[in-house]
């Protein structure tokens, strides 16, 4: 979101931002999708410089759609742009992560409740498969499966605000979930898998209250565990 007021003589209107030439919008969207995937996959670390010329060469695009792509990702909270300086992968502090997780604890269970009537028996069977597959997955595969497990529960009910907000919070905390996954595996903690199966059981019973309770506790436990490891927010970033 942008803030502030346009300068100049009172009553004057700010100049309109020129539209990019035909084709640049589609190219910008294509670059944004590819770069978003690379950031979420861990190809870029928080705080890492993103060079526009490298993106232009990599994706066969001119500088205009690359700049459009970076602005899109800045609006999503994935990129930090500094005027006349450059672009970096956004990083968050422990305090910011704590706030995001507390928001998730409160709104994700509500989003799940909205979706629960639309989750079919076939969907539940797939959730059960994903929960089991995560138990033997490596870190990167776990992140893919975990994302599919949770977000597939949120895409069925039409929402105008909640679904997009939850997905943005997931994207902004992706790197730190990756670090958390390494931590709980190194400590031999299987709680996350137990919670996934509890959530599947509650959804199978169509028990909205229990589904909300299990999901809120699941998110809360991750938040508390991340708080125990502040090095996650400085190491490798």
Fold and architecture overview:
Keywords: DNA-binding, Transcription, Transcription regulation. Residues 25-92 form the HTH gntR-type domain. The protein is mostly helical and 237 residues long. It has helices at residues 24-40, 52-59, 63-75, 94-115, 121-134, 139-151, 162-172, 174-186, 191-204, 208-227; strands at residues 49-50, 79-82, 86-89. It has 2 domains: 24-89, Arc Repressor Mutant, subunit A, CATH 1.10.10; 94-233, Up-down Bundle (Four Helix Bundle (Hemerythrin (Met), subunit A)), CATH 1.20.120.530. The protein is 61% helix and 4% strand. Helix 1 (24-40) packs across helix 3. The longest helix is centred in the middle third of the chain and has 22 residues, at 94-115.
Looking at this protein, list some descriptive labels.
4% strand, 2 domains, 10 helices, 237 residues, Arc Repressor Mutant, subunit A, mainly alpha, single chain, three-stranded antiparallel β-sheet, Four Helix Bundle (Hemerythrin (Met), subunit A), disordered N terminus
Top CATH class of the largest domain: Mainly Alpha
The number of distinct β-strands equals: 3
Helix percent band: 55-70%
Number of helices: 10
Give the radius of gyration.
20 Å
What order do the SSEs take from the amino end to the carboxyl end, as H and E? HEHHEEHHHHHHH
Report how far apart the termini are.
25 Å
Biggest sheet strand order reads 1-3-2
Gross CATH architecture of the largest domain = Up-down Bundle
Domain HTH gntR-type: 25-92
Keywords: DNA-binding, Transcription, Transcription regulation
Protein name: GntR family transcriptional regulator
Region (Disordered): 1-28
